[in-house]
Write a structure and sequence with these properties.
- Helix content is 5%, strand content 47%.
- It has 131 residues and is mainly β.
- The strands form 2 sheets. Strands 2, 4, 5, 6, 9, 10 and 11 form a 7-stranded mixed sheet that branches. Strands 1-3-8-7 form a 4-stranded antiparallel sheet, with no helix packed on it.
- A hairpin with a 4-residue loop joins strand 7 and strand 8.
C-alpha cells in the first residue's frame, strides 16, 4: 500500500522560513517524480514545485521562484520543500504527490492530468503566514 505523508507545516511570520517534508513508502520512490501543490481557502489547487525522479530537473511556479527550493533524498524516500521569505499569500494547505510524468514532463505533471498520470497524494500540511 502506497503512503504519502507531509510534515513540517506551521504558522510563521512573514519573511520567515519553513521546510516541508514528504515521506513516501510502498513504491519504488526513485522511479517517481514528486511535486508540491497548495490550496488556499476558497481557491483552486495550484502547483508549486516538482522534481524528477533523479533530482536532476526541477520546475517552479513563477511566484515562488527564488524563494522555494524542492529537493529529494532517494535513500530516505523523502522530498522536501524549503520555503524562504514567506508571504501571507503563501498561506495554504500544502500537498505532496508522487507520480510518473508523461510526454509533457514536469510542467504538465504540475498541471495534474489524471488520468493518464496516476498521482499518489498525501493528506496535506497547513502552512499559515501571519503578517
Amino acid at each position: 500500500r502506497v503512503q504519502v505523508m507531509e510534515s513540517g507545516g506551521d504558522e510563521v511570520q512573514a519573511g520567515g522560513s519553513l521546510i516541508l517534508a514528504c515521506t513516501v513508502s510502498g513504491l519504488e520512490f526513485d522511479r517517481y517524480a514528486v511535486g508540491w501543490w497548495r490550496q488556499a481557502p476558497g481557491k483552486e489547487r495550484e502547483g508549486v514545485a516538482c522534481i524528477t525522479w533523479s533530482g536532476g530537473a526541477t520546475y517552479y511556479r513563477d511566484t515562488v521562484k527564488g524563494r522555494f527550493t524542492i529537493s529529494r533524498d532517494n535513500t530516505k524516500g523523502r522530498a522536501y520543500l524549503l520555503m524562504n521569505d514567506l508571504k501571507p499569500e503563501d498561506t495554504a494547505v500544502y500537498f505532496c504527490a508522487a507520480g510518473m510524468p508523461d510526454f509533457g514532463g514536469l510542467p504538465r505533471f504540475m498541471e495534474v492530468h489524471s488520468p493518464p498520470i496516476k498521482y499518489y497524494w498525501g493528506q496535506g500540511s497547513q502552512v499559515t503566514i501571519s503578517s
